[in-house]
């Protein structure tokens, strides 16, 4: 797959690197040319360029920028994103005295705001639940099971493409329904990351009934 990445930071580097290892053609785009070049070289990407270059590069575009920036950013590229799969890995989480909370208020999601900002793009929420370091593992697996990656969106083609991308990384896709459910995926991140930051192991909170 041809994948353009909006952003040059942690997620651009590790997810982009995982996709390069999986055989995809990745172009890293940033507002800072030197940062885009450095990230692309670090992961062996096919190329680097501006944010506009990344938006126009492939059938898949990853938004790896702060959550509060993502809707406005894709709005600027709404025309070029027409028909493309836009993956939103952002987490709109902010610290409070009571742990992490959602800057969206939990009644809508950043993914929904991105879809509203670029109405002809096919937005998929995915890859927001793991720390970026996990994507540096060649084929992430834990206790013998491949990492599972929840994702949701409304366009069947975009969902198929995302599932194929996840599978190509050696992971297991977990389809979670339509884009309306992105609000739950974002809330899950706030809960799980909050627990993790508080010293707990949230992954042990979800055993299947068959384990009983
Ligand atoms: N890091 C994680 O473990 C992790 C895990 C799950 C989800 N996420 C989510 O993934 C997203 C990216 O996280 P990250 O860790 O990669 O962040 P990061 O390392 O801070 O990188 C953010 C990138 O966004 C760019 N950016 C910031 N403001 C921008 C703007 N107004 N216009 C265009 N580009 C802008 C930055 O460019 P400059 O360098 O020029 O500022 C940088 O390239 C976030 O929404 C985060 O919540 C992160």
TrEMBL record:
Domain of life where this protein originates: Bacteria
Keywords tagged on the record: Oxidoreductase
Keyword check for Oxidoreductase: yes
Keyword Oxidoreductase recorded: yes
Classification via Gene3D superfamilies: NAD(P)-binding Rossmann-like Domain (3.40.50.720)
InterPro entries: NAD(P)-bd_dom_sf, P5C_Rdtase_cat_N, STEAP_metalloreductase
Sequence ranges assigned to domain Pyrroline-5-carboxylate reductase catalytic N-terminal in this UniProt record: 2-92
Signal peptide from the UniProt entry: none
Regions annotated as coiled coil: none
GO MF: oxidoreductase activity
Matching Pfam families: F420_oxidored (PF03807)
Name this protein carries in UniProt: NADP oxidoreductase, coenzyme F420-dependent
Annotated organism of origin: Streptomyces bingchenggensis (strain BCW-1)
Phylogenetic placement of the source organism: Bacteria, Bacillati, Actinomycetota, Actinomycetes, Kitasatosporales
